[in-house]
TrEMBL record:
Pathway: Carbohydrate degradation; glycolysis; D-glyceraldehyde 3-phosphate and glycerone phosphate from D-glucose: step 2/4; Carbohydrate biosynthesis; gluconeogenesis. GO terms for cellular component: cytosol. The lineage of its organism: Archaea, Methanobacteriati, Methanobacteriota, Stenosarchaea group, Halobacteria. Keywords: Cytoplasm, Gluconeogenesis, Glycolysis, Isomerase. Its EC number is 5.3.1.9. The gene is pgi. The keyword Isomerase applies. InterPro entries: G6P_Isomerase, Phosphoglucose_isomerase_CS, SIS_dom_sf, SIS_PGI_1. It holds the Pfam family PGI. It comes from Natronolimnohabitans innermongolicus JCM 12255. This is Probable glucose-6-phosphate isomerase. HAMAP family: G6P_isomerase (MF_00473). It catalyses: alpha-D-glucose 6-phosphate = beta-D-fructose 6-phosphate.
């Protein structure tokens, strides 16, 4: 990926960051890079994620997937980083696949039932993914899916792959039923695991090129250096950090390709769960170009000066011509292409923000294929790790998510948790219809 931070400079935007400030910040980037390199060299928790392009073994994944490689549909049962990385890849490349990839990463009963009732379970594979193996939503959904297969007379053990940690309920289940299983790599938090079996099992079942994904990531890894001016990922991580320090507390991720909508959701977890600590962190907003030009752009251009917009330009998409029209006002569209229109709208929107002094950064891809996607995933992970070093937070843990888990467990009779008691003590001020 390439990064253009020109529209984030103080000469263009407010808040903005001056070139001098970036030069000074680059000294901290150099120190951070040294820390990152050391963490990678020692396979330290979290930093190990940046080693995945050379650690992940596509042959091991292909071998585990082999029994269900012919599936017409793939049900991935996982949540957060155990679903979003895989979904980013298969949603981005869906046009290249004959396999329907569905991600059960919520416990909405009507939604789950709708999928289970319409799918031909004989030709559906189950991809259960959980690093801990104890995530309530994932285990609950797996039990429901397994029961649906049994009710349909389909042997779920013939259709299931498990990706989980060394130990835990899912590992025990996999061992007990001798299921094909893969390991969530040690030292890799879920939101950083897209380039491991966690993200690549689904890609393999859907017939995507694992080597190209990993090659794109490896090429991005090669760019990691001691200066933000030599490394697109660090340029992004440092610029977003600097803008947050100057008041841009929101980062709207706006990919200009329908196929990258799920990528924005993946980025939101990566950014929020990594940097949202100690009262610090920048809020990711998920948006989509061109669609949200008719939805959120008004706020981005004329609302509070508390936002950065990150555009992802997909590069050349296969175009489709717009027929000529006799509608006078629209005749300029006839004979052009939808891709041309999308590109023009992207450039016009980027310029409209710059004209209003609103900071924005451009991430440039050369198409949406496995190689570019691998580079984008890796680049954003590296940008997040760098930003975490600059914020001085613990990038790789997420303690704040545990309170609600305990409260939920207590509410369902899974133990005595003071968090559950606190739920009952809610302050209410109800305004009823
Ligand atoms: O892979 P697991 O252990 O099921 O966790 C799923 C997700 O839940 C979290 O632990 C947050 O609760 C995320 O960090 C993680 O991606």
């Amino acid at each position: 990926m390439n990064v253009d931070i020109g529209n984030a400079l103080a000469s263009v935007a407010s808040p903005g960051v001056s070139k001098d400030s970036l030069e000074r910040l680059d000294e901290h980037v150099a120190d951070a890079h040294e820390r990152i390199e050391g963490g990678m060299a020692n396979a330290e928790h979290g930093y190990e994620a940046l080693n995945l392009p050379r650690r992940t073994d596509p042959d091991e994944i292909r071998s585990a997937v082999e029994p269900v490689a012919d599936a017409d549909a793939l049900l991935t049962v996982g949540i957060g980083g155990s679903a979003l990385g895989a979904a980013t890849i298969t949603d981005a490349l869906a046009d290249e696949s004959d396999t329907e990839a569905i991600y059960l990463d919520n416990v909405d009963p009507e939604w789950i039932t709708g999928h289970l009732e319409r799918l031909d379970l004989e030709n559906t594979a189950i991809n259960v993914v959980s690093r801990s193996g104890t995530t309530a939503e994932t285990l609950a959904n797996f039990l429901v899916v397994r029961e649906a297969f049994e009710s349909a007379g389909v042997d779920w053990t013939e259709r299931t792959i498990v990706t989980t940690g060394e130990a835990g309920p899912l590992r025990e289940l996999s061992d007990r039923h001798d299921l094909p299983s893969l390991k969530v790599p040690d030292g890799v938090p879920g939101r950083f695991s897209a380039l491991s079996a966690v993200g690549l099992v689904a890609a393999e079942v859907c017939g995507h090129d694992l080597e190209a994904l990993l090659e794109g990531a490896a090429a991005e890894a090669e760019t990691l250096s001691g200066s933000l001016f030599d490394c697109p990922a660090y340029a992004y991580g440092a610029t977003t950090y600097a803008l947050d320090q100057r008041g841009a507390g929101v980062n709207a991720m706006v990919p200009y390709a329908e196929s990258l909508e799920t990528y924005a959701e993946w980025f939101a977890q990566l950014w929020a769960e990594s940097l949202g600590k100690d009262d610090l962190g920048q809020t990711p907003a998920r948006a989509l170009g061109v669609t949200d030009q008719h939805s959120q752009l008004q706020l981005y251009r004329a609302g509070p000066r508390d936002k950065l917009v990150t555009f992802v330009s997909p590069g050349d998409l296969e175009d489709r011509e717009i027929p000529e029209t006799d509608v006078e006002d629209l005749s300029y569209l006839g004979g052009t292409g939808l891709g041309e229109l999308l590109e023009a709208e992207f450039e016009a929107t980027e310029a409209s923000l710059a004209a209003a002094g609103r900071p924005n950064v451009r991430i440039e891809l050369e198409g949406v294929d496995e190689y570019e996607l691998g580079g984008l995933l890796y680049g954003m992970e590296a940008a997040t790790v760098l930003a975490g070093e600059l914020y001085g937070v613990n990038t790789f843990e997420q303690p704040a998510v545990e309170w609600a888990k305990k409260a939920t467990r207590g509410l369902l009779g899974g133990g005595d948790f003071e968090e559950a008691d606190a739920v009952a003590e809610k302050t209410a001020l109800r305004i009823e219809r």
